[in-house]
Design a protein that fits this description.
With 309 residues, the protein is an all-alpha fold. The chain contains 15 helices and no strands.
Length: 309
């Protein structure tokens, strides 16, 4: 390998590590805010919460568009449009998950939502006709198994597949397509415009949905705090990081790393004293970490970076 090629390989590796590190932060932000959101939803209707959360996040993210507007404004509108397409799947995932929870158990919801992890490489192979790397597939299988073990104590053992489960399964498909769309557009459009477009789209659709799900809220410090934390950190910051990161890593790696979200959620619940730590939780978390380790051990070559979708 020539010195120039070696330097390119080092740059690619450093960029990949930064991207994976950003996705790790996203998982941490989503997982640690789960308890906050759960506590607030007892005092505010879900769609109203989503509308306010994503509207606040959109306002926080608007400054990201200024550099794009100044440098090459012709890239702004295609990026926003691409983000809107990704946002449709993001919003659909949230809605299906929310309404599915009305008819199924939280354990079933968590497990079925987590199916987006193994769905990503399968749908990606069909849509983009690119097979994921072998190590990525192994990592997906191990991480998905870990999510199943993690959720096992709260899964409905009656094995009755009701409409809530069907809606939640649709949510997993929507989230998988969101990751695929984001991976495709983030590397082909101005990532800042894509990031803002998806959040603004979700805010508009959530607000429009209030016509069918009237807003209800008891304004308390818990509700206001949850909106600020999720709007600024778990949405504006998290989705900006995710959109940036997906330019430089594969969509399958993204799904595997994001599978850490329930691990962080469990850790937060244990530390806050709202849940006890069980052997199953430890085993499930260990499997998810093992799945990520399998993926991270495979060097991410320049060829993979060029074909990461």
């Amino acid at each position: 390998m020539s010195p120039a090629s070696a330097e390119v390989a080092k740059d690619v590796t450093r960029t990949r590590w930064r991207a994976d590190g950003a996705l790790l932060i996203v998982s941490l932000l989503w997982g640690t805010t789960f308890v906050v959101v759960k506590g607030a939803l007892g005092e505010i209707s879900t769609m109203y919460f989503l509308a306010l959360r994503f509207t606040l996040a959109t306002g926080c993210m608007l400054p990201l568009l200024l550099p794009v507007w100044r440098e090459d404004r012709q890239r702004l509108w295609p990026g926003l449009l691409s983000g809107t397409i990704a946002g449709l799947f993001l919003w659909l995932g949230y809605v299906l998950q929310t309404f599915g929870l009305r008819y199924t158990t939280p354990g079933n919801s968590g497990f079925l939502t987590g199916l987006y992890v193994p769905l990503v490489p399968l749908l990606g192979a069909v849509v983009y006709r690119r097979k994921p790397l072998r190590t990525e597939l192994i990592g997906v299988i191990v991480a998905a198994a870990g999510m199943a073990v993690l959720m096992a104590p709260s899964i409905d053992r009656r094995l009755q597949f009701n409409k809530g489960d069907l809606l939640t399964l649709g949510c997993a498909v929507a989230f998988a397509f969101h990751l695929l769309m984001l991976s495709y557009f983030s590397s082909r459009r101005a990532f800042a415009a894509v990031a803002v477009g998806q959040i603004a789209c979700t805010a508009v659709l959530s607000s429009a949905a209030l016509l069918f799900d009237p807003p209800r809220a008891t304004w308390s410090s818990a509700v206001v705090g949850a909106l600020l934390v999720t709007g600024i950190f778990a949405t504006a910051l998290a989705f900006t990081l995710q959109t940036w990161a997906q330019q430089y890593t594969s969509v399958t790696r993204t799904a595997v790393i994001l599978s850490l979200e329930p691990v962080f959620a469990l850790a937060t619940a244990v530390l806050s004293g709202s849940q006890a730590l069980s052997r199953g939780a430890l085993g499930g978390g260990a499997l998810i970490l093992a799945g990520i380790l399998v993926v991270e051990l495979k060097p991410f070559a320049a060829r993979d970076l060029a074909e990461h979708v």
